[in-house]
């Protein structure tokens, strides 16, 4: 990745890149001219960015969106305790309940798809494929209206959101579980069968312990998606965090733009925390010797078409998320 | 079943809107995502920082929030207007939200694609004196884009499903129409749901097949 040349003479030390400067194969180490050009361009970019910020701020100001009355509610404790935190609590509890049901759902269907019996494998595969292909919002609508129309039940928004999240994310998790189990080298289960373990024992004692280590980061990454998707509850009037920001606060203070911005920051912080957990787990499982399996790529994603040592973009994740909500 | 046949015009119109939303947002997301990816690998630390910040912020924000912000914030409060017709205006606002969100994922896919281009390609380009922009435009991006056709296809499928969230600001695409039909035909919820589910499969399955075929056809043989 460094820009060492094949010429006989090594570069003089002063021309080497300073360690702060990133070295990329896409461009040369800047010389005096390039450094000047980069400085000029940097100043230009900063100016354009500042102008964009100025344009936004003046537009907000023109519409009186910078009035203190719209922003000061966020400095009041009672606003947070009475209006925002109940929404956050609902979001987190929906996410938690959905995650607690979706993970076993994923394990059951992921393992069922690997069954030797076609009467288990085929229906499990159909369920997983269908629920992954239908938009989550349509499933939530179907649960809400179908529950009352077909079964005569009153379906609360909470139930509808959690059911939708379980069906969709459970199906995605099933695919993670399947690829996790398949990523354990075949020799492991062959050796286990050779020493006389039964199929169930092979799965329970040999494959799953190794697969879980390999797929833990992908599962946590999917839980971030699940947490984000709880915001769909807003559309069916579930009183979640987004509802607090886009309905409750504006109806009290008429401040939709400040409210949505603050709520967005809350979402981003929570997701970054869970995402950091996923990164930490991934690093841990990458160097783990408890498993023979390679880490599974996050599964709302596409396997990284990675040829190692390509034109470097540092810090690339193991897979590419598709933004599937 | 009768409800599906009676309402087939409404349903087809809703899916036509879903298709238009997908194509318009997909195109804008591809352009914006490519620019973001170029920013993230550029020699200027400022551009890299802006690109990284954009991707990290947008990827961790729920799409529903993005769309609600576009519809209510931009549309109602800031009076961003594309058309005198209210429904066309909300359509464009939801396209802005969808493409701004999807662009972050397109950017990351293209960056992964840049990673698959062998180092020698970029080094050779530099050796013959190409600048960063020439290197990216003529050598690296053409190869990178070919290698991410399949991931981009998956992003397009995800986008097709995500267009349903435009329902949050009242755009009458497939999911909102399904809800309206549920309310109008309370006795036919199950057939209506199956009809819409099958229609979605009809949209997404061929997209998946097309992009798998394209990715094989366009793959760079090394």
Automatic annotation (TrEMBL), chain A:
PROSITE patterns: ABC_TM1 (PS50928)
Span of domain ABC transmembrane type-1: 88-278
The protein's name: Glutamate transport system permease protein
Coiled coil (residue ranges): none
Matches recorded under SUPFAM superfamilies: MetI-like
Similarity remark: Belongs to the binding-protein-dependent transport system permease family.
Renumbered residue ranges of the record's region Disordered: 289-325
Localization annotation: Cell membrane
Any one cellular-component term (Gene Ontology): ATP-binding cassette (ABC) transporter complex
Molecular function in Gene Ontology: transmembrane transporter activity
Pfam entry (one): BPD_transp_1
Residues making up the signal peptide according to the UniProt record: none
TrEMBL record, chain B:
Endpoints of the signal sequence: none
PANTHER family in alphabetical order: AMINO-ACID ABC TRANSPORTER PERMEASE PROTEIN YHDX-RELATED, MEMBRANE COMPONENT OF AMINO ACID ABC TRANSPORTER
PROSITE patterns listed in its UniProt record: ABC_TM1
Protein name: Glutamate transport system permease protein
Gene3D superfamilies in the record: MetI-like
Any matching Pfam family: BPD_transp_1
Any one biological process term the GO annotation gives: amino acid transport
Organism: Streptosporangium sandarakinum
Domain of life: Bacteria
Record's keyword terms, sorted: Amino-acid transport, Cell membrane, Membrane, Transmembrane, Transmembrane helix, Transport
GO molecular function: transmembrane transporter activity
Transmembrane segments: 21-41, 61-78, 90-114, 188-214
Family annotation (NCBIfam families): HEQRo_perm_3TM (TIGR01726)
GO cellular component: ATP-binding cassette (ABC) transporter complex
Family: Belongs to the binding-protein-dependent transport system permease family. HisMQ subfamily.
Annotated membrane topology: Multi-pass membrane protein
Ranges of residues in domain ABC transmembrane type-1: 15-211
Chief site of localization: membrane
InterPro entries: AA_ABC_transptr_permease_3TM (IPR010065), ArtM/GltK/GlnP/TcyL/YhdX-like (IPR043429), MetI-like (IPR000515), MetI-like_sf (IPR035906)
Localization, UniProt: Cell membrane
């Amino acid at each position: 990745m460094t820009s060492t040349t094949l010429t006989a003479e090594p570069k003089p030390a002063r021309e080497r890149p300073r360690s702060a400067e990133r070295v990329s194969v896409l461009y040369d180490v800047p010389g005096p001219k390039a450094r000047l050009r980069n400085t000029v361009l940097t100043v230009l970019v900063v100016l354009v960015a500042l102008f964009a910020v100025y344009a936004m701020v003046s537009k907000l100001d023109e519409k009186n969106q910078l009035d203190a009355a719209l922003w000061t509610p966020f400095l009041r404790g009672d606003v947070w305790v009475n209006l925002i935190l109940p929404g956050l609590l609902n979001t987190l509890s929906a996410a938690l309940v959905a995650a607690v049901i979706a993970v076993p759902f994923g394990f059951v269907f992921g393992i069922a798809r690997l069954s030797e019996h076609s009467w288990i494998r085929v229906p499990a595969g159909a369920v997983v494929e269908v629920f992954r292909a239908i938009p989550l919002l349509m499933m939530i609508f179907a649960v809400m209206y179908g529950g009352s129309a077909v079964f005569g039940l009153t379906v609360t928004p909470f139930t509808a959101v959690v059911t939708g999240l379980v069906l969709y994310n459970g199906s995605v998790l099933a695919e993670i579980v399947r690829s996790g189990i398949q990523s354990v080298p075949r020799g492991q289960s062959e050796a286990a069968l050779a020493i006389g373990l039964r199929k169930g024992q092979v799965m329970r004692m040999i494959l799953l312990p190794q697969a879980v280590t390999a797929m833990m980061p992908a599962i946590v990454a999917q839980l971030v998606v699940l947490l984000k998707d709880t915001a769909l509850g807003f559309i069916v009037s579930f009183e979640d965090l987004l509802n607090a920001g886009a309905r409750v606060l504006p109806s009290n203070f008429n401040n939709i733009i400040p409210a949505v911005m603050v709520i967005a920051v809350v979402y981003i912080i929570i997701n970054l925390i869970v995402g950091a957990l996923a990164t930490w787990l991934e690093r841990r499982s990458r160097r783990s010797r408890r498993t023979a399996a390679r880490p599974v790529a996050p599964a709302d994603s596409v396997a990284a078409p990675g040829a190692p040592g390509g034109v470097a973009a540092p810090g690339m994740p193991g897979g590419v998320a598709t933004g599937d909500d | 079943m009768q409800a599906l046949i009676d309402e087939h015009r409404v349903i087809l119109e809703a899916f036509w809107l879903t298709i238009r939303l997908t194509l318009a947002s997909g195109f804008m997301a591809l352009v914006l995502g490519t620019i973001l990816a170029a920013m993230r690998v550029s020699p200027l630390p400022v551009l890299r920082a802006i690109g990284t910040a954009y991707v990290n912020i947008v990827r961790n924000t729920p799409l529903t929030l993005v769309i609600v912000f576009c519809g209510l914030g931009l549309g109602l409060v800031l009076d961003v207007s594309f058309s005198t017709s209210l429904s066309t205006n909300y359509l464009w606002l939801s396209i802005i939200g969808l493409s701004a969100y999807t662009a972050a994922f397109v950017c990351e896919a293209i960056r992964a694609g840049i990673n698959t281009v062998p180092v020698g390609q970029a080094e050779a380009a530099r050796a013959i004196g190409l600048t960063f922009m020439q290197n990216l435009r003529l050598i690296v991006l053409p190869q990178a884009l070919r290698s991410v056709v399949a991931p981009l296809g998956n992003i397009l499928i995800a986008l097709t499903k995500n267009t349903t969230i435009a329902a949050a600001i009242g755009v009458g695409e497939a999911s909102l129409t399904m809800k309206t039909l549920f309310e109008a035909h309370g006795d036919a919820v199950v057939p209506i749901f199956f009809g819409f589910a099958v229609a979605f499969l009809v949209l997404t399955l061929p997209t998946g097949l097309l992009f798998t075929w394209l990715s094989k056809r366009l793959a760079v043989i090394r």
